[in-house]
Amino acid sequence: MVWHLPLTGRLMQRSGVRIAILIIALMLAVAGAWEVYRTLAKDHVPTDATAQFLAQYWAHPLAPQGEPPPGFSSLEASLAPESCGACHPEQYADWRTSLHSHSIGPGMLWQFRVLSQDESNSCLRCHAPLAEQKALMALQQGWTNAPKTPAPAYVSSDLHLRGLVCAACHVRRHQRYGPPADKPNAQDAQNPAPATGQPHNGFIAERAFQDSRFCATCHQFPPQGRSLAGKLVENTYEEWRTSLAAGQGLACQNCHMPGKRHLWRGIHDRTMVDKGLRREMIIKRISASRLAVQAIITAPGVGHYFPTYVVPKVTVTLELRNSAGTREIARHVIGRTVSVDMDRELSDTRIPPGGNSVVSAEVTVPPGANYIEMRMDIAPAEHYVRMFESMLERNPKMDPATQSMLREAIQKAEATAYRLDDLVVAVPARLGESQHAVAN
User: Do residue 88 and residue 206 come from a single domain?
Assistant: First the structure.
């Protein structure tokens, strides 16, 4: 038996609420996989075989797994992450700490209560892409074309809530796929086909897992995808392709999966951001009481725009500190800011690969000891907070359960914010003197 959703029907929305997330859902359903990978294949691929493999591997919607092969144990057949972790404990432990394992939560679930099934499936395309996950979500949401039979034993009851699970990237029709071993033996090199007699018949080694285009299915819109101000809303792969990192042969996986670890750290991770940035401050006394202050932020360790997507924001604040207290002298937001309805770009101050962001100010200082402090506050989910709060304000008659999910989503989004260590520089005492300091 193949257990999945029938590909029929379109549901009406459960409420009359018109929300910005409809636009986001539609942005994701913009092109077939063949067109995406055919476009990405131009001029910068090692072989056409990689693009062809990826186009088939990520052909959406993903096909259901179907019946497990004869002789598979329940552990081998299971799509649950814990089952994979039984033999791959390090990868499972890493995955549990990653955003991939949290790609379904209140921030997504409230949307499913007001979107149609087709619109919701556009979100699930990346957040929980397995056919079996979509089927379980249909049962939970009460969508009309949900399966009429119970889930088979290899589909755990909470699989739809586990996010981007191991099987989403590694399993197709119960066949396991993965990158070649670091030190393959001669037999592996000659025969990458499944190996009967090994657990789950071994795996098929495929170099596409080491290629940045593997990530592009969810981190790159095709040329005809949604754009604002003439720029694709999601353009991370193309940003990387023109970067120094790409020129040096560094793929997405080199930074976000070092040593093949399943971490996928990014803007949400303080250590990752701190490593990727260089913060510099130059202070010059230009008169007896006046200073010229310049803060320069570069991203030499980032292989794409910083930040790449419309959701995060980085706020740089310069403050004067002395015995009288602390006062702000300059503030600058780094990021791509769009309207909550995702229909207008308001500003784009991101740092491109090889570029910088400069914050300058002149300030009068009193006699005595003075210090200039650079603060950098990271809000990885700024757009979500703004959008979710707008949804509550604009839709006061939203049902209590959906409102509760929205409030929980706001709390979780706000909790992702953090601050890098401050860079503090003493003001030079004599006219013409400068002070220079660098973090990272």
Answer: yes
User: Which pair of structure tokens corresponds to residue 343?
Assistant: 């229909």
7 assigned to some structural domain: no
Beta carbons of 376 and 314 less than 8 angstroms apart: yes
In the beta sheet, which residues pair with residue 351?
306
Q: Decide if 406 is inside a domain.
A: no
Residues near 386 by Cβ (< 8 Å), separated by ≥ 6? 340
> Is residue 224, in this structure, part of any structural domain at all?
no
Looking at the fold, whether 49 and 163 belong to one and the same domain comes out as yes
Q: What one-letter code names the amino acid at 262? A: H
CB 316 within 8 A of CB 373: no
pTM: 0.89
| SS3 at position 129 | coil
Tens digit of each residue's pLDDT, the chain (440 residues)? 567 665 443 333 444 454 455 445 444 444 444 344 445 544 444 457 999 999 999 999 999 999 999 999 999 999 999 999 999 999 999 999 999 999 999 999 999 999 999 999 999 999 999 999 999 999 999 998 899 999 999 999 999 999 999 999 999 999 999 999 987 664 444 445 566 678 999 999 999 999 999 999 999 999 999 999 999 999 999 999 999 999 999 999 999 999 999 999 999 999 999 999 999 999 999 999 999 999 999 999 999 999 999 999 999 999 999 999 999 999 999 999 999 999 999 999 999 999 999 999 999 999 999 999 999 999 999 999 999 999 999 999 999 999 999 999 999 999 999 999 999 999 999 999 999 999 97
Q: What share of the chain is helix, strand, coil (3-state, %, to 5)?
A: 35, 20, 45
Residue 177 DSSP SS3: strand
Asked if 132 and 159 count as a contact pair (C-beta separation under 8 A), the reply is yes
Identify the three-state secondary structure at position 289: coil
Domain extent, residue 375, equals 270-380+416-439
